[in-house]
Amino acid sequence: ERVQVGIVGAGPAGLLLSHLLALAGIESIVVETKSRAHLEQRIRAGVLEHETATVLRETGLGARMDGEGLAHDGLFLQFAGAAHRIDLKALTGRNVMVYGQHEVVKDLIAARLEDGEVIRFDCADVAVRDIDTDHPAIHYSRDGAMHEITCDFIAGCDGFHGICRASIPPEALTLYERVYPFGWLGVLARIPPASQELIYAAHDDGFALLSMRSPQISRLYLQCPPDADAADWPDERIWEALDARLARSDGFRLTPGPILQKSVTAMRSFVCEPMRFGRLLLAGDAAHIVPPTGAKGMNLAVGDVRVMARALERYFARGDEEAIAAYGPACLRRIWRVQRFSWWMTQMLHRFEDDSPFDRRRQLAELDYVVNSRAAATTLAENYAGLPMDWGD
Ligand code: FAD
Ligand code: DHB
């Protein structure tokens, strides 16, 4: 089999890339190890930057998002028992959309399957070959048979643990990494959100986040040890910890309810440079990870594949190799600015075990400054609502 672009991974990056390429008349096939049902139920990120929502809308994917998604004009930072609103809309003119990543994935899968069998789910033994030639190939097995797809380019969109980055000779890559000494325990609960807008809370017990998926479903996160096991967190322990960290002196309290799902996520900052080796281009979590505190992971993946789709369009229209070479550098500038923001939010809001009392007071002073200075609040708001795209030209 032969295709212009072979895509490894059907997460937001791989699926949106395939969708954008199709709109430009470029053929692609997406190879994925998991089942369609698994991808459509995997609860991950929940906040779409203004520009991410706009791209989905402008490419025909906005109907369910605009119907079921929740547009948020602000968020709360909470510390010392009080919540302070950051008015994203007033400070930046933009808002964000709360709409689950798995819903975006559902919409993308439905749109792509209209073009036929372009997504191959349930593949095993996925490998990329000949990536430093002009005929790179994806190999996989499915239903007991081996398959090969020869491509002009391969897009490595297979996430942090995928095989694409690992197929590049290590000496060709520089990896930048910071691992945080905590994780997040995330829960999905059948209770109406206790707040209309997200609450990011810094508490002496650790960070907590109140988010949501719908008017009936809340999404909550708790800072926990990095190696925590969700099995050690019975529902009562989770509600007790959340209630302690989110309670306020104005009487705000959480009402416990049924927990539908819980899982622990490790926290790291990671960047791989460059984002290309020969005819293999990396995008999304395959190339970089941010700690989730700034809600940037999925948005960065979307930014990457927008730049990649345009570079590939130029390549297929007029053989523009320069556009391919410019892809990574254009993305990396934005990626590093988003890395900085995600690190900044993380260090400001979490409890670090070896922090001194001085560090703790400095952290509270930083929060106090951010919520009381229009300049500082604007800095947070413009990053949170989303930095402008950087196309590298
Ligand atoms: P992914 O969504 O990881 O997609 C990669 C795809 O490749 C997957 O479908 C995977 O099954 C597939 N794949 C892997 N290996 C292979 C292979 N060998 N062959 C073929 N396919 C393969 N971000 C936030 O902002 N907030 C959050 O709360 C948040 N929570 C998260 C929780 C978890 C457990 C994880 C892992 C990430 C979370 N993120 C969060 C980050 C955000 O979800 C990611 O940044 C986003 O999914 C990146 O999209 P992607 O398409 O690059 O990668
Ligand atoms: C969600 C996740 C985040 O990392 C974040 O910063 C805000 C919201 C969420 O899953 O709803």
Automatic annotation (TrEMBL):
Pfam families: FAD_binding_3
InterPro entries registered for this protein in UniProt: FAD-bd (IPR002938), FAD/NAD-bd_sf (IPR036188), PheA/TfdB_FAD_monoxygenase (IPR050631)
Source domain of life: Bacteria
Alphabetically ordered keywords of this record: Membrane, Monooxygenase, NAD, Oxidoreductase, Transmembrane, Transmembrane helix
Domain FAD-binding: 2-342
SUPFAM superfamilies to which the protein is assigned, alphabetical: FAD-linked reductases, C-terminal domain, FAD/NAD(P)-binding domain
TM helices/strands, residue ranges: 5-26
Transit peptide recorded as keyword: no
Keyword DNA repair attached: no
Example GO molecular function: FAD binding
PANTHER family listed in its UniProt record: 3-(3-HYDROXY-PHENYL)PROPIONATE/3-HYDROXYCINNAMIC ACID HYDROXYLASE (PTHR43476), BLR0106 PROTEIN (PTHR43476:SF4)
Protein's name in the database: p-hydroxybenzoate 3-monooxygenase
Provenance organism: Saliniramus fredricksonii
